[in-house]
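Worked Example 4.2. Consider the chain below.
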Amino acid sequence: MGVAEWLENHADRLAERSRWRADVAKLVVTFTTGVAATVVGTALQVAPTNKTDRVATWLLGGTVVLALAVLVLDRLREPDHAAVLAESAIHGWDEATLIAELRVEVLATAQFNHRWLAVVRGALAVQVSTAIGAGTLAAISLLREVGP
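Applying the procedure from the previous section yields the following structure tokens:
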């Protein structure tokens, strides 16, 4: 296996891993939002609301907005082979040039996806932190109602 083939295989592995990570991020925000909503909803139903409940509710709202942001940020790219083939037809590239340009497109896409996943991970971290904050405040409110 030559260097070019290894790079193509590596780019394929990176694409699969990027897709997997984006899908996991969507699952995590879905579950953390659901758990936070359950705890906050329970705290709101147990007793008259207090300041802690209101803050937890606002944090839950932020959690939902951030979860939607993570879902919308899933904009990973696929290599645009059609554009490279069209450019090849326009410029009359030989087969070696065409293959080189297709490889460049695959590698550029993998690099873009890697950078974009850093943005998704950042949004995921903020969303999970907000969900934990909302759930924790709601749990504190519930524990206060139960008493010693």
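The chain is about 85% helix and 0% strand. Residues 70 and 120 are 6 Å apart (CA to CA). Compare this with Example 4.1 before moving on.
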